[in-house]
Amino acid sequence: MRVEVADKPLSEIEADLLAVLIFEGDRLPDALAGAPGAEDVKGGYRKSTLIHPERPRRAIVVGLGPRDEFEPERARVAAAIAARTAGGDDATSLALAGPDPGDPKALAAMVEGAILASYRFDRFKSAKEDEGSQRLEEITVIADGGVAEAIEVARVGAEAENSARELQDLPSNVVTPSYLAGRARAIAEEHDGVTCEVMGRREIEEAGMGGLTAVSRGTMEEPQLITLRYAGGGDETLGLVGKGVTFDSGGISIKPAQSMHEMKMDMSGAAAVLEAVSAIAKLEVPISVLAVIPSTENMPSGTAVKPGDIIRQLNGKTVEVNNTDAEGRLILADALAHAVDQGADRIVDLATLTGAVLIALGSTYAAEISNDDELAEAVEGAGERTGELVWRLPLHPEYKDLTKGTVADLTNASAKRKASTIYAGSFLEEFVDGRPWVHLDIAGTAWDVGREYVGKGPTGFGTRLLIELARSLAAG
């Protein structure tokens, strides 16, 4: 999407729709004050009013609420409301005006909200249904020229998140492990400094990745261990790991039929990592990144891993597979160990890992589990800035008792239904070799959040967070 910065009066804007964001109690700009409908304007948060000035012909005023309660998330939401209005009116161009033309954080959030809200997934709809439908193509931000860099970062990040959302939305007969590997190769071809390596079933087995080998035994689809490297410089390498289960039936421990169709989104962590690496390279962030994505389907069959089987992970630890629907931690364990072997100094993993996190935190926060305060705080700060919130859960030594196996080193599913989200994170800690590490359980935030800018479908959660994390770490 084209995004430009224009420092000009509202009366000179030629967009199909002008959106003006105001605080509660503020006066309308002079160009709108006498327009039909202006008397109905309210500045309450999320309140919107259509008015009809002479130029441009259509305008919407969206409230930000009280000035002293403002945070960039409110600008993100308000701009999304404007973009959805533009989409409903078949507008192809939108102009955005905030209360402060020199505030880069608020203006960047406005751009993010508008681009994210403009996302559509209609690839499989007939041309007849879409006839006459228009898409938002251009956004003009009315602002000082000094905010151009912040707005460009926002544009790249939001478009990357929309790309991740499309990967989530696509059905699992399209997005297979090989499809994700193809996307990784395309990213490497698009950007200087990015390289891609892909291991298939035979290489995965020969490498000793018992978790990924076991989970992939039930499917005919070729599993893929995808490694992307971005050589951006810096003294350290940031490791990013994303769960890439392209369809999760639960395996032999099969899931209930209700909502199983949504298990195409069990690769949401992989989608976020892939598109974040692409954006980091596009922005030329001066940091080196190692991204590892273990990808497979989890299916029941005559060759599938069975409850009670014992496997050996890449780092040599043995695991009792007591529930084949706790497969994510098995493939992530190998990916984390591989990231360590390949030189990651600090690691962040994203995974739709446990249903329990939805019970604990709903869709407002992702769960954060970490062995390192500094990295955890950096992830939390990045999430605050992008609106992708995380809440840190404790990682107490007592939780290790839940991970212990009876006849093997570990079990992938504790017999005790206690602290399931924390237990899963504690399991993963066994494979990071003491490296500073953050685990984000995004099962509650990857889908059906309901915020104005992502709606009820895929969210791409974590994409912008990882981009912001990389930028903040690079800046020191």
**Low-pLDDT sequence parts:** none
Give the name of the CATH superfamily of the largest domain: Zn peptidases
Query: What is the 3D shape?
Result: elongated
Report the biggest beta sheet as strand number plus sense, adding barrel if it closes: 9 strands, mixed
Structural class: alpha/beta
Strand content: 15-25%
* Number of helical regions: 15
Proportion of helical residues = 25-40%
Mean pLDDT: 95
Indicate the CATH topology of the largest domain. Answer: Aminopeptidase
Identify the CATH architecture of the largest domain.
3-Layer(aba) Sandwich
How many domain modules?
Answer: 2
Q: Taking Cα atoms only, what radius of gyration do you get, to the nearest Å?
A: 23 Å
The N- and C-terminal alpha carbons lie at a distance of: 31 Å
CATH class of the largest domain, named Alpha Beta
Please give the number of β-strands: 18
Characterise the protein shown here.
The protein has 476 residues and is an alpha/beta fold. The chain has 15 helices and 18 strands. Strands 7, 8, 9, 10, 11, 14, 15, 16 and 18 form a 9-stranded mixed beta sheet that branches. A hairpin with a 5-residue loop joins strand 12 and strand 13. The longest helix has 22 residues.
Write the layout of secondary structure elements.
Layout: E1 2-6, E2 17-22, H1 30-33, E3 48-51, E4 59-63, H2 72-88, E5 93-97, H3 104-117, H4 127-130, E6 138-142, H5 148-169, H6 177-190, E7 194-199, H7 201-207, H8 210-215, E8 224-230, E9 237-242, E10 244-248, H9 268-282, E11 288-298, E12 309-312, E13 318-321, H10 328-341, E14 346-351, H11 356-361, E15 366-370, H12 373-386, E16 390-392, H13 400-403, E17 410-411, H14 420-429, E18 437-441, H15 463-475
Parallel strand pairs: 1-6, 2-4, 2-5, 5-6, 9-11, 9-14, 10-11, 13-17, 14-18, 15-16
Antiparallel strand pairs: 3-4, 7-8, 8-11, 12-13, 15-18
